[in-house]
Amino acid sequence: MEKEEGKLTDVSLKELSRKLEEFSKERDWEQYHSPRNLLLAMVGEVGELSEIFMWRGEVAKGLPNWKESDKEHLGEELSDVLLYLIQLADICGINLADAATKKIVKNAIKYPPKAQ
User: Which residues form a coiled coil (predicted)?
Assistant: First the structure.
């Protein structure tokens, strides 16, 4: 992991997975982490993420008109979704990085660039 302006960057999915597993074990929460429960928790977080954008209309790339506190809240909700997704993939035995890489390749074949 590198540090950039006081923030951690380049954290791998594997590292996040390890931290989540440790966090859950320390709290004895693993018993609640079935695929169904993790999926429903993630869907709830997607709902919270959606609320941030509700009634704002179209939003410009980079969120130039947003308050810093709104951006921070957005980052927290995006993180919640990501962390539940990682846990769901782990509990289902899916290597998320590998699956995502394969999906990008598959999409590139399915949707080739326009010929110029």
Answer: none
